[in-house]
Structures are given as structure tokens and as C-alpha cells.
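Appendix B, record 7
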Amino acid sequence: MKSDIEIARSCSMKRIEEVAAAAGIAADDLELYGKYMAKVPLSLIDEQRVACNRLILVSSISPTRAGIGKTTVSIGLSMALNRLGKRSVLALREPSLGPCFGMKGGAAGGGYAQVVPMEKINLHFTGDFHAITSAHNMIAALLDNYIYQHRGEGFTLKEVLWRRVMDVNDRSLRTIVTGLGASTDGLPSQSGFDITPASEIMAALCLADSEADLRRRIENMVLGIKFDDRPFTVRDLGVAGAITVLLMDAVKPNLVQTLEGTPALVHGGPFANIAHGCNSLLATKVAMSLSDYAVTEAGFGADLGAEKFLDIKCRKGEIHPRVTVLVTTLRGLKMHGGLTEGDSREQERHALVEGFANLDRHMENLRRFGQPVVVTLNRYGDDTDEEIALLAVHCKLQGVCFAENNVFMKGGEGAEELARLVIDTIDHAGAKGISFAYSDTDTIEEKVTKVAQKVYGARSVILKKAARRKLARIHAWGMDRFPICIAKTQFSFSDDPGQLGAARNFDLTIRDFIINGGAEMVVAVAGDIMRMPGLPKTPQAEKIDLIRGQIEGLA
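C-alpha cells (predicted):
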């Protein structure tokens, strides 16, 4: 079997103008980035077509360390829909350099279900992440300068909230001290770095519905707290225009293609364990405007990505998926069923059956949101027909449609059965709306409690002292109306990554609240989750090299 990068190189890509023409985009509307990538204008959004689109959300069970394969399935499903004569466009997130050079490697799909050119998409792409990083850190520099230049006038902040970001996993930068040295080097203060996908600029760009809306959101970003307990914002700093200028290209969605030439919009990249985990609303709406069946994914398991997609993105963007495809693997189910290395075949079978509890919880949650669910198995070479039959029977008993797929080996052809099932489900039982987990009028504490109890299965929510102090501030600033974005481990329903399966009756501990005044959401930090990941003992970077002019080891 060829590697992902070898498969990607062996395909014959279409010129991006040809891909655009197939989607109904005029060549004059393209801002070209070489032969195979382009930016597209926001004027392509047609709200009437958006309202009629049969949007398909792809989510998954709680993942293993290697993931579950949502992106691969999303790509394969969109290709399969086009093979069946349907008009489908894909909308995905951009990969982050942190995981690409850390644990994960490439994140542009896999096997024969990839978006290309995969090397460029996985690396610097069209520069969106760099623009977001620069914009975020420009605010940090301008804020530090404002404090430094106005200190003689008595200006200072009681607390600075704005940290820095970079798109690299670097645990050493989680907490730092800036301004050391001579008095002309700034004022000493404690700060730190988050990874770029956790940036509020990233979240705001992905939730904005226009360039003007992005500008408005930037103005409302809270940078610190004055001594009268009022927020100090980018509007107070007077630099919203300059920051918007840095993002004027990044806000436009990127058009690429799948290995089979299907149009794909790849734009934005917040993580679902520390942010809201969806590609940009703008890219999704462009995909919906250009197709009858738009396919998109939400990050990590359905408790994180799908919940945030529905409760945050759909609520604010006034869209909703007609069906959710829930991706699973036998390996993932066995892990959640307690499989350990060296178990016998009978023990494996038992672990598989026990692991169904994780799948069932995700199905139950999605149904509570009003979503019809189609379960698909991402098949691996060592999966047995007997085990697959067990899963199929279990889904039938749960009243949920099931189809295995083999998009990794067969591309779109490997998802045709799944595509037919999705079409049929939409035609006969497609969702008409969303039953949100909480209402806008609930307090932030009520919103967190409802998600924790309804979606995660928690007994109660414990708020640390620092979190309670933040709640009082959120209420005083009139931000209770914002949706909540819970940052927690992706490996468990609880805040403990070791609690696999379908954990219930645990206490969810919220240690902090982070106010995203521009993204218009409140991030609740649960357990020990970090907004700046670290690198593993053997990072993927050790395998990546440039050999005879070609990149190797990226996937």
C-alpha cells in the first residue's frame, strides 16, 4: 500500500479553474494561489440556496489516539455523492502545523480519500494560519505598547487577559514572563502562548458571516480589565481596522479538490477539544450555495465537535444539518470496551460489545438534538466479517441505519452504499431543525450544566474559585447570552481521559472561564485540558524530510 503522500502525488489534478467551473464559479472570481488552489469571494453565498441545501454533518465516537477517520469519510462521502450524480461540495477545516509535526502527521484525509495538493494544504497552504497568528500577536504587541506608552499618564490594567499564539506545539511557552531587560524593553509581566487553533481570532473568523461582521467581532475582543472592572477591548485600543487588514485575505474561503476532482472548501481550523472545532461558517455557506448536498465535519467525538457545531455554529449561522453521519471503527469500540494488549479473540469480541455503549451515547445525544443518525464503519484490514455483523445487528436493534465504507482503499466508490443511505435518510427522515441543549436566556452556569448532564452524562458541575469569579464578571458585562464552548479531553465523555466507554455520574470540574467577547462565546475550561499542546517523545517531525526535492514523511 502506498503512503498518503505517494497516492496524492500519483493523482492527476485538475486546474483549479476547471474545478471552479464544475461548481459554477467563474474564473474571474478566483484569486489564484498557483495552479491548484484559489481563494473565492464571499459574494458566492446565496442565502436562498443555503436554505434549500441538504447539509450533511460527519461526526464520530470518542476517538483513539490515532483518530477515527472523520475527514477521510467526509471526503469519500462527498466524492460518492458526485459519483451517484448528485451535486456535492465539501467543507473542511485547515490542518494545523502543531499536530502535523507532532503526533498526527498530515490531516488532509487518507488513502484514496484526500484533498489535494496535500503537501501545501498540510503546510503553509494560502497563509491563513499565519495571518491569524500575526493578527493575534499584533494585538498583543499593540496592547503592550499602549500600556508602556501611557503609563506616565497613570494608565494601567488590573489584569491582562490577551495571551500570544503560535501554530507549534510548545509546552515551554505555556507560561512566560515578558518585558525583562532594560526599562526600554517593556514592562515585566506574566503571559503565555496558546496554539493558533485556540486563538479568539480563529474562532471569530470561523463564526463571522461577513467581512463587516469580522471587523465588529475584532472590536469587541476583550484584552484586559480596567481598575473599575470594565473590559478593555480592541475598540479601546483603536486598532480594529489594522487587524482586519491583516485578515482581509484570510477571511476568504480556499478552493481545492479531492483526488476525484470534487470541489472542496478548506477554511479555518479551530480544535474541538479547546475551541469550537468547525470550519468557517463562510466556507460552509459557500459550499451550500454551490451544491445540493454539502458535506462538512466537526472535530473529535460528537460530544465535542457535533455539540458545538449544533449549539454554536448552527445557532449563530441559522443553518442545520439534515442528517449526521457517525463514524466508528472496531478498534475504537474495542478500546472503549476495555481491550488490552494480548487479549484473546473471545476477549476482543467481548470488548467490542462493551464498546457499543460509547457509540450508543453519541447516537442518543444526536437524536436528542433532533438529528437522524447514520452509522458508518471505517473498515480496517484486520476487521472480521463476524465483528462487522455484530455491529450491524446492534445498530439495527437501536433503530439506526448502518453502512460500512472503504473510502481509504477505494475512494468515492468505497462510500457509495453510505451515500445512498444518507440520501434515503434525508428524503424520508431529514431533520427540519435543531433542539438545542440550552437556550440563549440560560445563565452560563446553567448552559454548562445542561451540556454536562445531557450530553456528557455528568452528575454535577464543580466550579473552581477562579471560575466562579469569572462568572460574576461575565454576568456584569452582559455576556450570559453567549453560547458556551467547553474545552475538555476528546478521549472521554468526562474530563478524565482515562475514563473510556460511556462514563456516567461523574463530576465535571470547570477550573476557568475564558471570555471571547469577539467570537461571542464563553470557553469553559474543564479538567486538565491545555490550550497549548506539548510534543510526544517521538514527534512526527523526526520522519519529515525533503529528499531530492520531494517532501517525505508528512503522512
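Remarks on this record: The mean pLDDT is 94. The two ends are 13 Å apart (CA to CA).
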